[in-house]
Give the backbone structure.
Amino acid sequence: MGSLAEVRENPSGLKGSAEGDPGRGSTPAVSPFQLCLVRVSLAVMGPEAPLAGWVRASTRPRLTDSSAFRAKQEPEAKVAKLNVNGRVVEIQVEDDTPLLWVLREQLGLTGTKYGCGVAQCGACTVHVDGAAVRACAMPVSAFTEGQKITTIEGLSPDSSHPIQQAWLALDVPQCGFCQPGMIMAASALLAAHPKPTEAQIREEMTNICRCGTYNRVIAGIQRAAGISTSG
Ligand code: FES
Ligand code: FES
């Protein structure tokens, strides 16, 4: 698999056919969560881009079963070194295993969530050298030991990041499933734009929340940025 830049060009990070690759199915299964994502996209953002993007994504080969990666791990695994939350870890893994599975299943960092598996919902957002990246679409071979990967567990040692404080103050989460990804995306946004406008927030925050917490997410980012809101 190629470099980080190549993967950004092809954010699904998926290649090859489903044949002989038990980690991918040729027929995309439509889960209730995905249907929910489409409904939320339509309700919040209209009939244009989100649905079109989702439909395109849903016809690609997709991740279906992380256990398949575990099953294949023994004969073809290679040693890889990753810098995760300030610690260099050595893992045995196939090159095309998504970073998300490594984080959740090999390192036990389950704060990063699996939503769509095709780089659309943002539930799996982590930071790579401070930038928001969707870990479900990034093969582990795209990373070097020199790149700093940060998960929600490593965002701050005591949950005191301004975004986390604002989230607590405003009770941003509802069910909470999307919120680790939201927080990671929001903190990356704030690092790049310390005083974002509402328009910037709306444009940059493309994570999907099936509970519809979008207005509180915007207010939380504004609070963390020290921007007063009108209501
Ligand atoms: S799980 Fe949806 S973007 Fe990664
Ligand atoms: S999906 Fe429930 S809070 Fe976002």
